[in-house]
Design a protein that fits this description.
Layout: H1 6-13, E1 31-36, E2 42-46, E3 52-53, H2 59-68, E4 76-78, H3 81-87, E5 100-102, H4 103-113, H5 118-125, H6 130-143, E6 161-162, H7 164-175, H8 178-184, E7 188-192, E8 199-203, H9 207-211, E9 215-224, E10 228-237, E11 240-249, H10 254-267
Antiparallel strand pairs: 1-2, 1-11, 3-6, 4-5, 7-8, 9-10, 10-11
């Protein structure tokens, strides 16, 4: 039996007819989705609309929120006790109390290595306290049409829920922003404090990017006891640009093994795929307020 390529099926029909489920990748994460980046159409889904905790993938929305406020990327922000309190209970931080860092570097520390003192510091850089930043994150989700995404915390340590589909759609918007995309594609960076005292190496936690088996276009990991192991990532595989989410994995490598299974499936032509959802006329863009030297 011959099938139309997915891109052709989307363009002609908006969706394709179901074929053999046995040809689909065996995904171990409890919830997952693969979306075409250009159209937002679903290529694969497993409980894609189930509401689940999202842990540190939350920080994608912090980045979208402060970029929307026009954060001055070349400005400097000091780490305060507010940031220490907000990060309590999370993984070890490298951002010491009283040190001052460039806002661009705080974005790197947050998105690449999930440093939990960075979100509230970035919020303060755009004039928001933790509660104000949380409200803006919810506003961003609402404005993007993400009806199941809710935030009560800036880091993902205490609450925050979404779905595999809505997280993939959020990453789709983030990857359309050149500043965020560049950070999410970076594997290693050294950031420096304003005093020059601190030189801090940060590496990405996205092992799919580090493996370089496929062209990964950027993503974010997350873990908490409630959320399990999570991954939201973009990739260009066999000329097809996709965003994918894996939520709730029971082991650290589950999400990356799932990524490899999906990537191999796409590389083979995505046999058994069913494309769902109508074609979007244009990819959403992040509105950025002009402020200082913020990049646009």
């Amino acid at each position: 039996m011959r099938f139309l390529p997915l891109a052709t099926a989307v363009a002609v029909f908006g969706w394709s007819q179901p074929v053999f489920a046995s040809e689909l990748p065996e995904i171990r994460s409890p919830a997952a989705v693969v979306l075409d980046t250009s159209t937002g159409a679903e290529l694969f889904g497993k409980n894609p609309d189930e509401v689940r905790p999202i842990a540190s993938t939350t920080k994608i929305f912090v980045a979208l929120a402060v970029r929307r406020r026009g954060i001055d990327l070349e400005g400097w922000t000091e780490i305060t006790r507010v940031d220490v309190k907000a990060a309590r209970g999370g993984a070890k931080t490298r951002l010491d109390l009283g040190q001052t860092f460039r806002n661009l570097d705080l974005l790197r520390a947050m998105l690449m290595a999930s440093d939990n003192r960075a979100p509230t510091a970035l919020g303060r850089a755009v004039g928001l306290d933790p509660e104000g930043l949380t409200r803006l994150m919810n506003d961003v989700a609402r404005d993007l049409g993400l009806k199941k995404t809710r935030f009560t915390d800036t880091s993902g340590l205490r609450g925050n829920v979404s779905t595999a589909r809505e997280m993939a759609l959020a990453l789709r918007v983030a990857l359309a922003d050149r500043v965020l995309r560049e950070i999410l594609m970076t594997d290693h960076v050294v950031i420096r404090s304003k005093s020059g005292y601190a030189r801090l190496p940060y590496g990405t936690t996205n092992e799919a990017l580090l493996a370089r088996r496929y062209r990964v276009t950027g993503g974010k990991t997350g873990f908490s006891n409630a959320a399990g192991y999570c991954l939201v990532t973009g990739a260009d595989i066999a000329g097809r640009d996709v965003v994918m989410t894996f939520l709730g994995g029971d082991g650290s490598q589950t999400r990356f093994a799932d990524f490899n299974r999906v990537a191999a499936w796409l590389d083979a032509g995505a046999p058994g795929a069913r494309v769902r959802g109508r074609v979007a006329r244009e990819r959403p863009q992040l509105r950025i307020r002009a402020r200082g030297t913020a990049a646009r």
